[in-house]
Design goal:
The complex is a heterodimer. By secondary structure, chain A is an alpha/beta fold. Chain A has four helices and six strands, in the order ββαββαβαβα. In chain A, 44% of the residues are buried. Classes of the chains: A alpha/beta, B alpha+beta.
């Protein structure tokens, strides 16, 4: 798994590539926490190049969404969600908790 | 059925997904089913590593996989604490963000992705069996 962060004026774009499972999810959780700790609560999670995500990754996303939405200070939105991962997120009832966008331009433009 | 012994550590989840994924592919499952079989196996193994072997450093997980009567069958045997997945409450998928429970999601996915999930405590160990029919 590989994470890169790009800062925009109104939000941060966090790109995650590769596979997120119980072994790698702590790194994803850490990246999201680091963003929050530096006062960034408006986050776009770019899933281009994400091959796999288990419920361990879903939990990291849920924890981040809770923290970001606190005091209405922001939210996590998803972009470029691959089909297989979107289906699993839907099954878990997570698609109602995250706005999703087809591309990074519209996701970043949301903020 | 092919069997492999894995050290019960998260770092082997990649290999576990590859093991069941290769058998599913060879058996003629499509990409979507292969992904879902790998996800179910990952969730099952993650639960065993996290709960059955909580605090245990040298736990082993034996995974057997193969086709039986037109279904792929995955059997996981561990020697850790027994825990019955059916005793874990289903997550409330309609709960809003603040009330959404974090636990139980892996087991929920296993049950949704596979046709059958069965758990049994035997002398030889805890035995989790999952099957999914090839359509």
């Amino acid at each position: 798994m590989e994470i890169t962060v790009q800062e925009f004026k109104h939000c941060d774009l966090i790109s995650v590539k590769g596979r997120v499972d119980s072994a790698t999810a702590p790194q994803l959780a850490q990246a999201l926490e680091t963003a929050n700790e530096s006062g960034k609560y408006k986050l776009v999670m770019d899933m281009t190049g994400l091959e796999y995500m288990s419920s361990a990754g879903f939990r990291a996303l849920l924890a981040a969404q809770r923290n970001c939405k606190k005091y209405n200070r922001g939210e996590v939105v998803l972009s470029n969600v691959p089909d297989r991962i979107r289906e699993a997120l839907e099954l878990a009832g997570f698609t109602e908790l995250f706005k999703t966008f087809d591309d990074n331009l519209s996701a970043v433009g949301h903020f | 059925m092919q069997s492999v012994q894995f050290s019960a550590k998260f770092e082997y989840l990649d290999e576990i997904r590859e093991f069941v994924g290769d058998i599913a592919r060879t058996s003629g499952f499509g990409d979507k089913d292969i992904y879902n079989i790998q996800l179910a196996a990952d969730e099952a193994a993650s639960n065993i590593i996290e709960h059955a072997y909580e605090g245990v450093k040298d736990g082993m997980l034996e995974i057997s996989c193969g086709m039986r009567d037109g279904s792929i069958m995955i059997v996981m045997v561990d020697h850790g604490e027994s825990f019955d997945p059916s005793a874990i409450p289903m997550p409330d998928l309609k709960a809003d963000l603040s009330e959404r429970k974090i636990g139980g999601l892996g087991i929920f996915l296993m049950r949704k992705l596979m046709d059958e999930v069965h758990y049994e405590v035997r002398k030889a160990g805890n035995v989790l069996t999952m099957t999914k029919r090839k359509r």
